[in-house]
Amino acid sequence: MAVLGQWLVLLHVVSAFGFVAGLVGREVSRVYARRQEKLDPFTQLMGLSRWFERNLVMHGSHAIIIFGTATAWVRGWPLFGVLQGSTINWVFVSLLLYLTTVPLIPLIFVPRGKRLRERLATAQAEGVITPELRAAINDPVVRAAHIGEEIVIAVIIYLMVMKPF
């Protein structure tokens, strides 16, 4: 079981690297897209951002939860901490923090992403970056949700590395 636990930790960490790379790639692509004045480079950068989202962020988040819970189980770490009568709570707090980001998907990212894609299609039909497209890429709610997601991930990384409680 010890060897299996080591492999699961490795897979969990590699998944986390991919996930974080996806977050960084998505945000860097969006930052550069916001700066564009011409539609073609804007469209390419938004396509790149979407690639990072679909291939690294989405798949990475699924892999993280699968390998993380498997690692906790194999290593005997209590997944529900204090609810199981344990004094080890960093796994439980990490899981709770991770779960706080899940509602962002159906409440913010999916509907506003759809709106952004619709406005991009309209802009492509007109051949220019429209004010509506510019407003959609600068949506303060999406930006706040991304920042919140990134803060949560940073705290989880701290908990995973330091195991403070």
Short structural summary:
The chain has 165 residues and is mainly α.
Structural account:
This protein is an all-alpha fold and 165 residues long. The chain has one domain. It has helices at residues 2-35, 39-75, 90-101, 104-126, 131-137, 140-162. The longest helix is centred in the middle third of the chain and has 37 residues, at 39-75.
Largest sheet: none
Q: Which runs of at least 5 residues are low in confidence (pLDDT < 50)? A: none
Number of helices: 6
- Tell how many strands the DSSP assignment holds: 0
Approximate strand percentage? under 5%
3D shape: elongated
Order of helices and strands: HHHHHH
Spatial separation of the terminal alpha carbons: 24 Å
What structural class is derived from the secondary structure elements?
Answer: mainly alpha
Relative helix content = over 70%
As for the number of domains, it is 1
* Overall pLDDT score: 96
Rg calculated over all Cα atoms: 19 Å
Give structural attributes.
165 residues
Secondary-structure blueprint:
Elements (H helix, E strand, L loop, with lengths): L1 H34 L3 H37 L14 H12 L2 H23 L4 H7 L2 H23 L3
Helix pairs in contact: 1-2, 3-6, 4-5
